[in-house]
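Table S2 (continued). Query chain:
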Amino acid sequence: MTDRALRMLRQDPRLAGLAAFPFHFDLARAAHGHVEEVRLASGRPLEVVAGDDTGGTYFVCADGSVLYADSEGGAGVLGSSVEVALDIVTGLPGWHDCTGLSPEDGEEKILACVAQSEEEIREYHGIDEERAELRAALGFPERSAVELVGMLHAALSRTEPDFVLLNAEEGCAYELIGPPAPALWEPVLAAGRADLALLRADDRTAWEEVAEDPVRRRLALRAAQFDRADDDSGLLRHLLRHEARSSMTDELRLAAVLVGLRGDTGDLPLLHEVRQTDFDTACGLGEMPEPGAEADELRQWARELDDSMFGTDPADEPVSTWTDLARDQGMTELARVALIRELDGIVMDQSRLRRPDAPRGLATAPLRALARDFEELDDHTQALRAQRLYAALQESAWDRVSARLEQTRLERVAGQLPEAVGTSAALRDTLAAPGDDTLRHWECVNLGRFIAEEHYRLTRALADADHPEEARALLAAADAILGELSENAANGVRELAEETAARVREIS
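Corresponding output:
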């Protein structure tokens, strides 16, 4: 560690004692660690350097930034270095009371809040002489409370997405200390808004560059969805023609809606040309009015789709719209954090999954989608967190087996072999005693084949990890499943079964 202020504290017991009291930056508490095991969502390293008497912990991140975590599940960045964090902590001894302030609150409100906080501290112990001594020794300049609050606000605003703290065991995210993060759509849509401005400026080079780039094209269409202008007809037609190259996407349907809302029947030939791009577009745009339709019919079709699928408020879009576009732009951590917080919300309140048409039933598809999204981000910990809850909420035997099959695969891929063995055993228990008739033909369909294949793949993983006893036991279970399959289903698995058996013999 090369941070100057941290070195000084470590080398000078007098300064370290002042930092510990009355400013609650206690190096000695680093040895105790945090109240629970934690990690950054990004996977980057953390080092505990200090703590306070409330159970809070100061971490130094890989780039030198200081992250503070309290004992109640809140965390936030306090500075780009220990030196900056100490500047704030010593300048604002009651900084915890100032996390809700911002420069926009104005000098009067800030000074009043800081004065009240410090007066409450002075009722119990001194801070003024101690502050002057420590700040002078560390070489910190005189700063007003307004400046320090501005520094604190700027630091806390950096927490998402790169410094989000997770409970290491459960995987849930700590809440933000300080200002809320901007709505996800704001940073995601920024590039699309810029491109839309270029298109509206009739920059023909930009027209081609944006239209040829699938990500820029999608973002520009999303920007046009929320900023509609009467003069956009030409650019929307241009983007529509090019989006058809991607087959049936939400943005293709959006482009068709935005064109159709204008009620120009001269656009019907273009819309039908796009619809006939391939089978998927023909199905996805199947309700489109036929050539020769009236303007009102075209508008009605577009308006109904717009009302049911799109609209003009980005806050109404499902989070997956923005996480997909974030990931496509390389904003990996932004997407990851949004997905984690979405999963946290479901874990804490499963009523969010209730079906409007059947309040006692749960629509668990969002959990399965989250598991897939996390796997695409190569975050198997969060993918499994979503998949395990998804499996636990399935009602029919078929759905429980299918969910546990996917859970087994994810656990195997993540290297959690004992967990995968346990999940596969639960799957077999359901096959043996399903409790309903949904699995009555599992041996004759693809589900049976997939179950057998995963058992053999898990057996091979156990063998490769040098677990011969477990591999032999699971091989016997896999062979028993294979023996129950229909001839057609079994034929697709036999080669894998033979290869796996040979691998198990090698280690036996």
